[in-house]
């Protein structure tokens, strides 16, 4: 007999999986099963959970900016989905920089997305790497790390971490 907890878990997993447009046929196959136990026996659910993890890994890699910054750690990037973070950023701009900013101004989809929704659409790194050289990451450039990028990395601990991340990514390729 299936417990209430098992049913809730089953529907929670299916809800998570149904958001994956990449695997709609397999998800529908899983949903056709009448019982949670049958799904486990057929290993359908287990395969989809594994694919979900692979998609998360892929998404995580896609959240690394051209310069090596991790977008998923950036408050401006996260502010789009979190009004508290957005308000904290607005308050910081008002108090520290004396700039009147609205919550709707705090948005960024990362440099790989729509540049009109990018925090810094005039980013020199983005222009150099993507627009001028047609690369995905700075580490792919024959001049990496260039003097300008090295100087940029000295400006902040986060920038230094980004440069180191790029160096590691370059070693893996």
Summarize the structure in words.
- By secondary structure, the chain is mainly alpha-helical.
- The protein folds into two domains: 59 residues, no CATH class; 102 residues, no CATH class.
- The protein contains nine helices and no strands.
- α8 packs across α9.
- About 16% of the residues have low confidence.
Properties at a glance:
173 residues; mainly alpha
Strand and helix layout:
Blueprint: H1 4-18, H2 24-32, H3 36-42, H4 44-62, H5 75-78, H6 83-96, H7 124-132, H8 147-153, H9 157-172
Q: How would you sum up this structure in a few lines?
A:
With 173 residues, this protein is mainly α. 58% of the residues lie in helices and 0% in strands.
Whole-number radius of gyration? 21 Å
Number of continuous helical runs: 9
What is the string of SSEs from the N terminus onward? Answer: HHHHHHHHH
Low-confidence region ranges? 16-31, 50-61
Which assembly state applies to the chains in this document? single chain
Q: How many distinct beta strands?
A: 0
- In helices, the fraction of residues equals 55-70%
* Largest beta-sheet characterization: none
The tally of structural domains comes to 2
Overall shape: it is elongated
Provide mean pLDDT, rounded: 73
Strand content: under 5%
Determine the N-to-C terminus distance: 50 Å
Structural class: mainly alpha
């Amino acid at each position: 007999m299936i417990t209430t907890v098992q049913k809730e878990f089953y529907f929670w997993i299916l809800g998570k999986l149904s958001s994956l447009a990449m695997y709609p046929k397999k998800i529908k196959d899983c949903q056709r099963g009448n019982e949670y136990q049958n799904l486990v026996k057929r290993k359908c659910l287990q395969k989809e959970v594994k694919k979900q993890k692979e998609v998360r890994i892929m998404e995580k890699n896609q959240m690394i900016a051209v310069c090596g910054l991790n977008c998923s750690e950036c408050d401006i990037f996260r502010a789009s989905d979190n009004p508290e973070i957005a308000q904290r950023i607005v308050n910081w701009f008002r108090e520290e920089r004396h700039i009147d900013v609205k919550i709707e101004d705090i948005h960024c989809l990362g440099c790989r997305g729509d540049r009109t929704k990018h925090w810094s659409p005039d980013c020199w790194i983005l222009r150099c790497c993507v627009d001028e050289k047609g690369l995905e990451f700075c580490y792919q450039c024959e001049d990496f790390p260039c003097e300008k990028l090295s100087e940029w990395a000295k400006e902040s601990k986060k920038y230094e971490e980004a440069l180191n991340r790029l160096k590691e990514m370059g070693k893996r390729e």
